[in-house]
C-alpha cells in the first residue's frame, strides 16, 4: 500500500518470523493497539537459510493476524529505513527479551538513526511468559518432534508438523 498518509500513525514491525511465535504475536497485538496501522514486515534475507519460504511465512502471519483489522503483512528486501518511509511510517517497533537482544537492537537502532533520523525505533519489552521464546527454539524442538503447541499459533504448529514430515521423508 502506498497511498497518501492522512495523518495516520503507522509503525513497521520487521523481522524474519521463521516462523511467527506467540512471543511475536504478543508484540503484534500490543503494538497494534498503539498505532493506527501496524505493518508486519518479513525481511527477505537470503543469508539466513530459513525453514519457511517468505510466502509461507506471509501466509502464516496473515492467518494468525486475521482478527486484527489494522495489521498488514508485507515483505521487504530494501534497507529498513527506506522501506519504512515508503510505507509512510516513521516508527519501527522491535521486541526485547534480554540484555543480549538489547545490545544487538541498540546497534541496529543507532545505525538506522544514522541512516535516517526521521525514523524512530521503539522497543517493547517481552511478555515475561515468552522471554525465552524464539523461532530458533521452536524449530529445534519441532525438529525432534517435540511439542510446540504452547509456543506457536495453531496454524504454525500444523505447518511445522507438515514441514518436518516432508523433510524427514527426504
Ligand atoms: P530478526 O531476525 O530480525 O531478529 P525475529 O523474527 O527473530 O527477527 O524477531 C523479530 C522481532 O521480534 C525482534 O525485535 C525480536 O527481538 C522480537 N521477538 C522475537 N521473539 C520475541 C519474544 N518472545 N518476545 C518479544 N519479542 C520477540
UniProtKB/TrEMBL annotation:
Catalytic function, reaction form: (R)-4'-phosphopantetheine + ATP + H(+) = 3'-dephospho-CoA + diphosphate
Keyword vocabulary terms for this entry: ATP-binding, Coenzyme A biosynthesis, Cytoplasm, Magnesium, Nucleotide-binding, Nucleotidyltransferase, Transferase
Binding site for ATP: 16-17, 24, 95-97, 105, 130-136
Primary localization class, coarse: cytoplasm
Annotated residues for binding of substrate: 16, 48, 80, 94
Domain Cytidyltransferase-like: 12-140
E.C. designation(s): 2.7.7.3
Molecular-function GO term, any one: pantetheine-phosphate adenylyltransferase activity
Compartments, as annotated in UniProt: Cytoplasm
Known pathway: Cofactor biosynthesis; coenzyme A biosynthesis; CoA from (R)-pantothenate: step 4/5
Site (Transition state stabilizer) location in chain: 24
UniProt xrefs under InterPro entries: Cyt_trans-like, PPAT, Rossmann-like_a/b/a_fold
A Pfam family: CTP_transf_like
Cofactor: Mg(2+)
Similarity section: Belongs to the bacterial CoaD family.
Annotated function: Reversibly transfers an adenylyl group from ATP to 4'-phosphopantetheine, yielding dephospho-CoA (dPCoA) and pyrophosphate.
NCBIfam families noted in UniProt: coaD_prev_kdtB, cyt_tran_rel
Subunit structure: Homohexamer.
Protein name per UniProt: Phosphopantetheine adenylyltransferase
Species for this entry: Paenibacillus shirakamiensis
Lineage: Bacteria, Bacillati, Bacillota, Bacilli, Bacillales
Gene (name only): coaD
